[in-house]
Amino acid sequence: MKLGFYPGCSLEGASREYNESVQAVAEKLGIELVSIPDWNCCGATAAHNLDKELSLSLPARNLALAEEAGLTELVVPCAACYSRFTVTQHELLHDNAMHKKVNEIIGKEYKGTLRILNVIQFIEEYIIDKLEDNMKFEINKKVACYYGCLLVRPNKILNFDRTEDPQTMDVVMKKLGADSIDWAFKTECCGAGFSVSFTEAVGRLSGKIIEDASHRGAEALVVACPMCHSNLDMRRPAMDKYNGKKIDTPVIYITQAIGLALGIDRKKLGLNRHFVPVKLDNFKPYVKKEVVVENTQIMEEI
User: Fold this and answer.
1) If you classify domain 2-119 with CATH, what class do you get?
2) Would you place residue 300 in the very low, low, confident or very high pLDDT band (cuts 50, 70, 90)?
3) End-to-end distance of the chain based on CA atoms, in angstroms?
4) Could you state, in order of their start, the residue ranges of all structural domains in the chain?
5) CA separation (Å) from 251 to 19, 82, 128, 233, 255?
6) In 3-state terms, what secondary structure has residue 168?
7) pLDDT digits (tens, 9 = 90+) for 246-257
8) Has domain 135-285 been given CATH number 3.40.50.11810?
């Protein structure tokens, strides 16, 4: 099986472990992810604040290249990239004049035929049904699933899960054998792109997230966004300063959790790259559940 794939800048740089885990899980389950030829930066969180045409043209060029490559579905693991791609698709399909202008700017004809999937949709549609036959371990840990801002907003465009209390990632983790907690911060902002320019604010916002998860007994935060992972993992000193205590709860990608359940080597999943050590171990061996079907006798009346 082949699916289109857009790594974006983060997965080829600061969040290599996300890319490594996505690729490792896909390979394990017989899925080939085909990168868009000659892809470019989507503009992420900056372009749409500076120039409307630029913010649409950057993602549109990638989408047009994917269409030219004959791809029909595109997996976009980065939540920011996913947001820009889906918003661009929505705006261009609802604004003919802008659609025509963007096509002129990129020198290509973007038709809008591509189906865009975030990593959770990819897991839901292509991974989850294969888990039972391939799992080696149960992630028998208490986890907090953190969705952040961009996986579910703007809901009218993305049309993915519930805005305030999304559940898809929780369902996946429960399938892996984890205890996914009910908590108050699953869609609160982590500080996003202010990580460098306003680290104190990131420490405060992310500090509240990690403290609530830790207070409720979570042994790990599970995420699906490179920026969320970066803030919650790398900015731990600023978070500890805000909370007035040290919190060692690790942050892992949903694909890393799946990889652990599949028995994939921790280094291949990029778990050695985290700032906060991921000490999750002692997993329970997975035993496939037998489905018992009672014999029934069908009586026909003549």
Assistant:
1) mainly alpha
2) very low
3) 49
4) 2-119, 135-285
5) 15, 21, 21, 6, 12
6) helix
7) 999 999 999 999
8) yes
